[in-house]
Amino acid sequence: MRTKDIRRSVQDERIAPGGIGSHLIIAWHVADTMTQDLTITALTKAWKQRNKPTGVMMHNDRGSQYTSDDYWTALKDCGAVVSMSRKGNPWDNAPVESFLATLKTEGFQKTRFRDHEHVQSVAWQYIENMYHRQRLQAVSKS
Description:
alpha+beta; two-stranded antiparallel sheet; two-stranded parallel ribbon; 5 helices
């Protein structure tokens, strides 16, 4: 399984209630295809991980998996406030896009995945052991 064959969805806590964002990945999910089920699973994991908060702002791009009726119903059920950039203006989603680019270049570089579980394992190791530690160190220095 090659990196470009893997689609992933990451829910990133950029803006929490009260306007404080950690930029840490609070939930993520890996699947073979980028579908609304993938994004709903990641959203639900994030919502449960944070003890079912309401009013959390979710920045989404305009992909069909984020504009589907089922995804919007899941957002409503979670009490999330939706932020979606205007067409051709993806700046709100820049932190997630930056993370995904970093994951591909640093976490997945030169990795030939054996199977779905291997992708999950490598992603978990990178997110927990590298990405979050770098974020926490950057915050503690500022």
